[in-house]
Design brief:
This protein has 1116 residues and is an alpha/beta fold. It is built from 45 helices and 21 strands.
Length: 1116
């Protein structure tokens, strides 16, 4: 449903709901006095507010409230969304917050309250200065608190940040309300005087609340008397936590979730009744009959609050302060570029000069030269990190083995290529600037563009800390990210609050499709035999109802994967800051959309596992050969490498290893980097909207020679991709060439579809596009066709596709010529990509790489090359992390190899659980071979005996402060050794899978195949069958994909290779539970199409239950 119709629908629904609410409360229809609600919590009061901003605002509109304030608990994460929606609905938004104080203003400074008893205070931003002060106070509440998740403010700071703030005394937990409720009027007056000293009589109001809770009437009367005696105002609020009364059940459940209790056990924490919803002016007038001035004051306060967060937020990108003497920003950056051009091209060629002239002209017009210099500085800091970590030889020019790589449209910038921001030469590939820096007309202003940078994980982690140090955390902060409820999280949290058994919740969640909408929960449960009969039970009905209300609710504020904001002034003046869950990092309370709306410049530092793999593999090659491979100068038209790509030999290869990419690459058959860019760009939702992939391939292969543009004016935009809008840039170009728009308008139109894909916004841009097209002589029919190519689905920018296409080729080259180093690199940088270690191991074996299991005397922390083979690292063993592995290796290095199990246990601090896993992984196998031949039993040949012996020798004595346990002594245990049955091959395999996820000696299907029907063929035999043949295959599920919720793609792996399955939507409904199993037997028909082969599933069953199950990669 689009936003416009949603508004009308919700208004109709809520008119009925609020009428019912008034009737049920038995309120007289008395006064129709206007009223503004100044104390409202949205669902951004994490686990406290039970309504989203839209619901609150739609209700406020229906109730004809004069204004609505948002005052979420200790954060302003939702204020931008709230204010934008309010303005769209014609409601005045007021920005505020309810802060938690460490103690009361009237309490001694050393007073300490339990978190649940700390007082609250309500602050409203009257002016921009007032909002700045609220932001600074909120930052203090988070940064100064000892515990990251326990924000509270030292009240002594209020006086320093009072200007422009209207202070309300707070809810029932307000300092004054609490002492009044306790009958201590004198203390209440004394505290109120202290607030008056800070805010002045005109800016401090005693907050009256009447939620039909016992004590409300008397407390309000007492506070009104205090206000009269002190000459200050009173104000009515309803402390609304939801938009209509029925939401009180969700509010109760959320409070229970927040306190990790059931509803029954959280009675004290929950609100006392169901009256904390938005009420009409008439209802509030009745509730405050004794205090009419409290209603009137809401209007006066609302009229005073003129701050507009959507336009008044202050932000400046920092200028570049490190210019050498005699240089301007432009001259210095030009000098850097020209020096690099000599290294790159041999000289500053006329083509380079012309492109630099154009780029500098655009940058200077938009005052973005300093912006690029800041990025150059960041790259230099990253190079320092790279050198400090030993990942590059000191002294290399930055373009040689750069510390990171650009992505996105910034890759089209020659300046980026010359300063180390990008690894792609835009001149070589003819990359356009339009998407990154469109030409501007007189008066047009661009928002600073994004430059996204990919780094190896280890560089990125350190780089973020150094940027915090360089600029200070108040001027360099990570963007926030809102984690929201999805189906499994909603079921788990709500079910626990409702008292449903954890076993039932766990079973249900395992059977639910994690990509399903919460709205489909009842349907999903009805399809599960074990839950079908429970759907109508009251507690499960309540779970379903509450889960639907909780859909996409904010759960908590997290750290964005890589977005960082730099600022000339302290960011805490514009948005509150807080500590991240990762030590040493700081985040702001706005997500990327709110940050963009505020005009912040976001720099994305993204951790790309493929770059870590690439860096490590190249370093391994250098150590093996004593020569450095310059990956930027390899042959990019190597026929052997492209043959591997055409054959979909791309497991572990960045960007082209998914099932969808494997299907496409065999059809498209790229032969150069331009076509590699097509390949990585083609498998995106926006390209598939109009069957773009098929059209591109058919036209490229000459199978549709008579294709035509919908209008000749499309050719400048779409000619290079056979009339298919493959890239984001091309949509903007269509707007210019067909719709007659400026480049800036074209980009704005494209963005509008991605940010606000609703009818009113689309209608605005459609009208503008069609009008412009008609003015250029395009027929209405053709204009409609061209406009139909615009949508909100994701596509790559063209330069971004080239950046990823080059990296994909480089990884393919590395896999072809250096497979051992390639697989060591990928083993050491998990998790990444689409496949687990077992699948990667099987692929390594197919490429001639021998994989050896972990060994306590031979393994290092990570995988290493050992005599031409890959030796797995100790950290590949489950539960054995760096903190455990490093001391073990250090002990071995200092004191020599471990000579027996007893010797190993006596010299290390390894716990019993880890010992068992090391044994299961085969890491202790050598101790069998050097056992004393006189031991009893005389022959110890398997891991079962090792585990028995380790159990005899292990002497736990309880945890010490450092987490260590008593060491095992080399005491005699022979008398307690017994002859145990030897482990079977199947049991050893199970043990290795459970300990490392890998079985180096083979594939599980070798052991399963003898038990399968004789009709089940091997994956290598599938190629012998013709289109339409019916076959059966079996294997381990290594990949499931369900793009756009439609057709399901599954890949089965056996000991010979892979079998790709397709399950159409109708079959998916039939087999949706079966395909969640790890080992499957599938029957279907062979489908061959343009070089691809799939098995279209007719029937699918899990391999019999008696065979133990193994983890498989879930939906991706």
């Amino acid at each position: 449903m689009n936003r416009s119709s949603e508004i009308n629908t919700r208004l109709d629904e809520q008119l009925h709901e609020n009428h019912k609410s008034v009737t049920q409360n038995n309120f007289a229809e008395g006064s129709t006095t206007a009223y503004a609600e100044l104390h409202t919590h949205s669902n951004y009061s994490f686990q406290e507010g039970a309504s989203e901003a839209w619901d609150l605002l739609l209700t406020a509109k229906q109730l004809q409230l004069h204004a609505l304030a948002i005052t979420d608990h200790d954060n302003v994460s939702g204020v931008m969304e709230f204010a934008q929606a309010a303005k769209e609905l014609g409601i005045k938004p007021i920005i505020g917050i309810e802060l938690t104080l460490a103690h009361g203003l009237d309490d001694p400074d050393d007073t300490e309250y339990e978190p649940a008893k700390r007082p609250h205070i309500t602050l409203l931003a009257e002016t921009a200065v007032g909002y700045k002060n609220i932001s600074l106070l909120t930052t203090h509440a988070h940064i100064d608190a000892e515990e990251r998740n326990d924000p509270h403010l030292d009240p002594a700071l209020l006086a320093d940040h009072a200007e422009g703030v209207i202070c309300l005394s707070g809810c029932r937990r307000g300092e004054i309300s609490k002492v009044v409720s306790n009958g201590d009027i004198a203390s209440a007056q004394h505290a109120a005087k202290k607030y008056i000293e800070i805010y002045g009589k005109e800016n401090f109001f005693l907050e009256l609340q009447q939620n039909l809770v016992m004590g409300d009437v008397q407390r309000n009367r007492s506070m009104a008397v205090i206000a009269r005696e002190l000459g200050i105002g009173i104000v009515a609020t309803n402390n609304a936590h939801y938009h209509v009364r029925d939401r009180h059940r969700l509010n109760d459940a959320l409070v229970a979730i927040k306190n990790n209790k059931s509803l029954e056990a959280s009675h004290r924490e929950r609100r006392p009744n169901d009256q904390f919803f938005l009420k009409s002016p008439s209802e509030m007038g009745v509730l405050f009959t004794e205090h009419p001035e409290a209603i009137t004051n809401t209007l006066k306060i609302a009229d005073r609050c003129e701050f507009d967060i959507t336009s008044d937020a202050i932000y400046d990108f920092p200028s570049y302060d490190f210019l050498p003497p005699g240089h301007t920003e432009s001259s210095y950056l030009r000098k850097i570029c020209e020096e690099a051009a000599v290294r790159r091209y041999g000289s500053v060629t006329p083509e380079v000069t012309a492109r630099l002239d154009k780029e500098f002209d655009l940058l200077e017009r938009q005052r973005l030269v300093g912006f690029l210099l800041q990025y150059y500085d960041i790259i230099r800091i990253a190079r320092e990190v790279q050198e400090d970590l030993g990942l590059v030889e000191p002294g290399l020019d930055i373009e040689e083995n750069p510390p990171g790589r650009g992505r996105g449209s910034s890759v089209s910038l020659l300046i980026g290529y010359l300063t180390g921001l990008s690894h792609i030469d835009p001149l070589k590939f003819g990359l356009r600037l339009d998407r990154f820096l469109p030409e501007t007309l007189e008066g047009e202003k661009l928002s600073p563009p994004d430059i996204d940078l990919d780094f190896p994980r280890e560089i990125r982690a350190e780089l973020i800390l150094r940027i915090h140090e360089r600029w200070g955390y108040e001027r360099a902060v990570l963007t926030g990210m809102i984690s929201t409820y999805k189906i499994r999280g909603a079921v788990r949290d709500l079910g626990k609050a409702l008292g449903i058994a954890e076993d039932d919740l766990s079973r249900l969640n395992k059977r639910l499709d994690r990509h399903s909408s919460i709205s489909a929960l009842a349907k999903e449960m009805a399809e599960l035999p074990e839950f079908r009969d429970r759907v109508d039970a009251p507690v499960w009905q309540m779970l379903i109802e509450l889960a639907q209300q909780l859909n996409h609710f904010p759960k908590y504020l997290a750290q964005h994967p890589g977005g960082m904001i730099l600022s000339a002034r302290p960011l805490s003046e514009t948005v509150p800051l807080q500590r991240s869950a990762i030590d040493g990092r700081y985040i702001c309370q706005w997500d990327k959309n709110a940050s963009e709306d505020a005009g912040f410049v976001k720099i994305d530092f993204l951790a790309l596992g493929a770059l870590s793999q690439l860096s490590e593999s190249l370093e391994l090659i250098r150590k093996q050969t004593e020569e450095r491979v310059d990956i930027s100068r390899i042959d990019f038209e190597d026929h052997a490498v492209y043959t591997d790509i055409h054959n979909a030999d791309t497991i572990g290869v960045f960007q082209i290893e998914s099932a969808a990419q494997m299907q496409t690459v065999t059809r498209l058959r790229p032969r150069n980097l331009t076509e590699m860019a097509w390949e990585v760009g083609a498998v995106r939702p926006g390209v598939g909207v109009n069957d773009g992939v098929t059209l591109l391939i058919r036209r490229h292969m000459g199978k549709d020679p008579n294709w035509k543009f919908d209008h000749p004016l499309e050719e400048p935009a779409l000619g290079r991709t056979y009339g298919v809008p493959l890239y984001q840039d091309q949509l903007g170009e269509l707007a210019v060439h067909v719709g007659g728009m400026s480049a800036v308008e074209g980009d704005q139109m494209r963005r509008a579809f991605t940010r606000r894909n609703d009818e009113r916004h689309i209608a605005h841009w459609k009208d503008k596009f069609i009008t412009g097209a008609l003015a250029k002589g395009v027929s209405p029919e053709a204009a409609e066709k061209v406009f139909g190519k615009f949508h909100g689905m994701y596509q790559f920018p063209e330069a971004h596709a080239f950046a990823f296409g080059v990296t994909a080729y480089q990884m393919s080259w590395l896999k072809h010529y250096w497979p051992l180093e390639f697989f060591v690199g990928i083993f050491n940088n998990q998790p990444m990509g689409f496949y687990n270690l077992e699948t990667l191991k099987e692929d390594a074996v197919r490429h001639g790489v021998k994989v050896l299991g972990p060994d306590v005397n031979l393994s290092e922390k990570k995988a290493v090359i050992e005599n031409g083979a890959l030796r797995m690292g100790l950290t590949h063993v489950a539960k054995l992390n760096t903190a455990t592995a490093v001391p073990l290796i250090e002990e071995r290095t200092v004191s020599g190899e471990f000579v027996s199990l007893a010797n190993f246990m006596s010299r290390t601090r390894v716990q019993q659980e880890v010992l068992d896993l090391l044994s299961a992984a085969g890491a202790l196998d050598r101790f069998d071979n050097i056992a004393d031949p006189d031991r009893i039993p005389p022959t110890i040949t398997d891991r079962r005996h090792l585990r028995w012996e380790s159990g005899l020798r292990y002497r736990p004595r309880g945890e010490k402060k450092d987490g260590s346990r008593q060491l095992a002594f080399e005491i005699p245990v022979e008398q307690d050794m017994i002859a145990l049955p030897s482990e079977s091959g199947w049991e050893r395999m199970i043990g290795e899978y459970s300990a490392t996820g890998v079985y180096p000696q083979g594939h599980m299907m070798e052991k399963i195949r003898p038990h399968l029907p004789s009709t089940v063929i091997r994956s290598e035999e599938v190629r012998n069958y013709a289109n339409g043949d019916r076959i059966s295959v079996a294997g381990l599920v290594i990949r499931r994909q369900k793009p756009n919720g439609k057709t399901v793609f599954i890949t089965l792996e056996d000991e010979f290779g892979h079998s790709p399955l397709i399950i159409w939507p109708t079959m998916y409904q039939r087999f949706k539970q079966q395909i969640k199993e790890s080992l499957l037997l599938a029957t279907g028909t062979v489908s061959r199409r343009e070089g691809t082969m799939n098995i279209v599933v007719e029937n699918i069953t899990p391999i019999e239950e008696s065979i133990p199950q193994f983890p498989s990669r879930d939906w991706g």
